[in-house]
């Protein structure tokens, strides 16, 4: 079993919170993490109809049957249980007593917000990160391989090809999550919407254009984007609003939590197809940004990731906000550093007055270089970067 970086975060939170919640996409390893971190705790899943019926009809009785706590999988399937959990933990505060998991942000987080605010330590678990694959000795040496394969655990735990696994994953996702969150009458339209989102990976989100191309209304597109966010299929990278000039773009950019899923939706069925694909640069950018995102989530930090772009097209792909400073990151998929590769970073540093602070360029090559204060990082180096610091600590 591949050890998860979030394990240490979970154990740290278990010292202070009576309830722990692990949320993330389906098949990201939430149940495995919970069971490995707390092997002595009983395990129940609310995907089981009988258990769910008991949780709905007699939540007090269910909790009383497990006086020392338990792992409750897919807890959002019986939202009324959150109120009873509140009463139990308030009457007898025991750190790390209950472990909840869930694959839907809406259900799990709304239940926590309404009934368990201040009592829950949260861990958001995404598919494997590069440091986890490196520690296990299975990090691919080829970026195209990693982008086309993705990092969902089943693809590394079993003998499965992405072209076989992703179709089943999407069908299961639609059946389980989409139907619970929104009334999708035309499943083919929703699948088309998913594919059109993949085609816009790394682009500014234009809901009107997306709706038009899919033959749906603007309101429907807005609702479906929210569903994809809530179930950890996509995330929106927000622009940073620091007033370095007055003509900033304020529209978010769309990315997928897993490049393998995005690649499959783009029609990429094997590694060899990605090298000359029009979306290769966008997928590489997606890969790098999700690595920074995973690093922060795995350590229990807020992501605080942004991009910056003005109306003239000057753009920095990623800004890392560490509380006291911003670190700009430019991302280039090529293995050669072109003469103009550093232009955006240098311009941003001039505008922001941060010319004496570090900046970073992550590229598709293998050599670690430097240009003044700009560190030029090969993509595999992301697996060994130090943990992000917050507020200089």
Tell me what the structure shows:
This protein has 393 residues and is of the alpha/beta class. Among the domains are: 6-124, Rossmann fold; 130-238 and 253-279, no CATH class. Helix content is 41%, strand content 16%. The chain has 16 helices and 13 strands. The protein has helices at 6-13, 30-37, 49-57, 59-64, 81-91, 105-115, 130-135, 143-149, 154-157, 162-181, 187-199, 207-214, 218-230, 259-265, 280-298, 343-352; strands spanning 19-23, 43-45, 71-73, 98-102, 120-124, 234-237, 253-256, 305-309, 315-321, 326-332, 359-363, 369-371, 374-378. A 6-stranded mixed beta sheet has the order 8-9-10-11-13-12, with helices on both faces. The chain has a 5-stranded parallel beta sheet with strand order 2-3-4-1-5, with helices on both faces. Helix 11 crosses helix 12 (207-214) and helix 12 packs across helix 13 (218-230). The mean pLDDT is 90.
How many strands in all? Answer: 13
Rg, rounded, reads 22 Å
Oligomeric state of the chains present here: single chain
**Count of DSSP H/I helices:** 16
Helical residue percent?
40-55%
Mean pLDDT: 90
What structural category arises from helix and sheet content? alpha/beta
Largest sheet: 6 strands, mixed
**Strand-and-helix sequence, N→C?**
HEHEHHEHEHEHHHHHHHEEHHEEEHEEE
Brief description of this entry?
This protein has 16 helices and 13 strands. With 393 residues, the chain is of the alpha/beta class.
């Amino acid at each position: 079993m591949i050890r998860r970086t979030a394990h240490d975060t979970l154990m740290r939170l278990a010292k202070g919170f009576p309830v722990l919640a692990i949320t993330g996409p389906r098949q990201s390893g939430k149940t495995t993490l919970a069971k490995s971190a707390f092997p002595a705790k009983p395990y129940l899943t609310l995907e089981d109809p009988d258990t769910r019926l008991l949780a709905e009809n007699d939540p007090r009785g269910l909790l009383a049957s497990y006086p020392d706590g338990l792992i409750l999988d897919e807890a959002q399937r019986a939202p009324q249980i959150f109120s009873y959990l509140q009463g139990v933990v308030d009457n007898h505060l025991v750190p790390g007593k209950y472990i909840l998991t869930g694959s839907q942000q809406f259900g799990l987080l709304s239940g926590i917000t309404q009934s368990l605010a201040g009592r829950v330590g949260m861990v958001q678990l995404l598919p494997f990160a590069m440091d986890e694959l490196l520690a296990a000795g299975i990090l691919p040496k080829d970026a195209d391989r990693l982008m086309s394969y993705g990092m969902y655990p089943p693809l590394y735990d079993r003998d499965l090809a992405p072209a076989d696994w992703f179709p089943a994953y999407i069908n299961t996702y639609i059946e389980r999550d989409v139907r619970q969150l929104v009334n999708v009458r035309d499943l083919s339209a929703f699948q088309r919407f998913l594919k059109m989102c993949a085609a816009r990976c790394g682009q500014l989100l234009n809901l009107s254009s997306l709706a038009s191309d899919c033959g749906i209304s603007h309101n429907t597109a807005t609702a479906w984007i929210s569903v994809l966010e809530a179930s950890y299929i996509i995330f929106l990278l927000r622009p940073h609003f620091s007033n370095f000039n007055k003509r900033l773009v304020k529209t978010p950019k769309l990315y997928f939590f897993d490049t393998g899923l995005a690649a499959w939706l783009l029609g990429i069925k094997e590694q060899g197809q990605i090298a000359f694909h029009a979306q290769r640069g966008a997928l590489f950018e997606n890969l790098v940004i999700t690595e920074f995102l995973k690093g922060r989530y795995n350590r229990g930090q807020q992501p605080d990731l942004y991009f910056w772009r003005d109306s003239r097209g000057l753009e920095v792909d990623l800004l890392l906000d560490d509380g006291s400073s911003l670190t700009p990151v430019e991302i280039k998929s090529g293995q050669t550093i072109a003469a103009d590769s550093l232009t955006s970073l240098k311009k941003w540093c001039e505008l922001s007055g941060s010319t004496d602070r570090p900046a970073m360029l992550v590229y598709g090559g293998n050599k670690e270089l430097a240009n003044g204060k700009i560190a030029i990082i090969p993509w595999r180096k992301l697996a060994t970067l130090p943990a992000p610091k917050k507020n200089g600590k």
